[in-house]
Specification:
Elements lengths: L11 H13 L11 E2 L5 E5 L7 H4 L7 H12 L3 E7 L2 E6 L2 E5 L12 H17 L5 E5 L1 H10 L14 E5 L2 E6 L4 H6 L4 H16 L1
Parallel strand pairs: 2-5, 2-6, 6-8
Antiparallel strand pairs: 1-5, 3-4, 7-8
Helix pairs in contact: 4-5
Length: about 210
């Protein structure tokens, strides 16, 4: 559901990269990554694309990569997830009133999808969002996620500018909240700190409580 076929041929560059990784890492997922969480969730977290050694390996969004090391503990802290069991450095969780997905469902080279690939994958995101019956907040992790959400909702980017921890009232009870992506680069350079990320979720908690 809301996912290309495991051997999707829509984006030639991504197909070629997938085939390379299947040969190099035959035990990995190496395919489109489905969203995680319930369809009746009020919060939908939208990332960029699967990471090569994260979701592309595990088949689960933000699982196994650096970004998940900040995202999942933050979800637990703010009541959007509960821990199940610790295994090494990764924590298994149950999501609570939260769903997680990506604007692009297949891993791109150097974690940089092209515009055409984002556009081609938007139909899967659009279908998914229409099925989120209780949706109140979309959290866009980064500019591409922000623009992708606006695109599938047929809203003009010029009217809704990306800004960290900004809240955009899109009408019909839907709020788009922005955050810098919790990537290794952003956290290592200090562009996104733990406290900055917590502030975003404090904001979301206030919105959902209304």
């Amino acid at each position: 559901m809301f996912l290309p076929d495991n051997n999707c041929q829509i984006c030639p560059r991504l197909v070629g990269y997938r085939n390379q990784n299947r040969k190099k890492y035959p035990d990995w997922h190496n395919g489109p990554v489905k969203s995680l969480g319930q369809l009746n969730a009020e919060l939908y977290i939208l990332g960029l694309a699967p990471g090569l050694k994260g979701a592309n390996r595990t088949g689960l969004p933000f699982k196994g990569d650096h970004a998940g090391k900040l995202l999942y503990p933050t979800l637990i802290k703010f009541g959007f997830a509960s821990p199940i069991v610790e295994s090494g450095s990764e924590s298994e969780v149950n999501l609570i009133n939260c769903r997680i997905g990506n604007a692009v469902r297949c891993v791109p080279p150097k974690n940089k999808p092209m515009g055409e690939e984002i556009n081609q994958c938007s139909k899967f995101l659009a279908e998914e969002i229409t099925k989120l019956s209780s949706l109140k907040v979309i959290l866009a992790l980064g500019t591409i996620a922000h623009n992708s959400a606006l695109g599938v909702l047929n809203l003009k980017r010029s009217e809704w500018k990306f800004s960290h921890n900004a809240s955009h009232d899109l009408g019909s009870g839907l709020i788009l909240v922005d955050s810098y992506h919790c990537s290794r680069y952003n956290t290592n350079t200090g562009r996104l700190t733990e406290d900055m990320f917590y502030s975003v979720f404090k904001n979301i908690r206030k919105i959902i409580a209304v």
